[in-house]
Predict the structure.
Amino acid sequence: MSYDDNNIFAKILRGEMPAHKVFEDNETLAFLDIMPRSKGHILVIPKKPAINMMDIDPDSLCVLIRCVHRLAPLVRKAMGADGFVVQQFNEAAAGQMVFHIHFHIVPRYIGVPLKHAASEMEQDDILSANAELIRQEIGNQLG
Ligand code: 5GP
């Protein structure tokens, strides 16, 4: 399979699809998952095209995971979460639905079960409010 320029995340990167962005630098973009498994679920993607772990070059993967490492504790703090899960799926058989590599940062709250992946669209005003909380925390730490 070759990289499809028309996947949803490529469109978000080109500004052709909206997203609740929480962080951006020269190499990386982070935004809220539109069907979050928990409150504050974000996705972290490289700007350089890659489908998944099979084709991303090691240096780009390092840049990406450094960003995940930087953002995950800030998302946890912003959302008042008790922990977080980091997930990354490779190929449809493993649950990959969008074929531009991404890491999920999924906040966890004691006693709150995860929703199933991509099961329920979140209301836009809730996504907006959560994005603002996360942007504020990132701004406080990195800004
Ligand atoms: P995957 O299973 O490929 O790792 O996960 C893809 C994720 O992208 C899912 O959690 C799904 O909810 C999310 N997603 C799908 N379409 C959109 C979209 O248009 N915008 C955003 N922000 N997230 C999306």
Q: What stands out?
A: The two ends are 39 Å apart (CA to CA). Residues 8, 19, 31-35, 89, 95-98, 117-118 surround guanosine-5'-monophosphate (CB under 6 Å). The first strand starts at residue 21 and ends at 24. The chain has a mean pLDDT of 97.
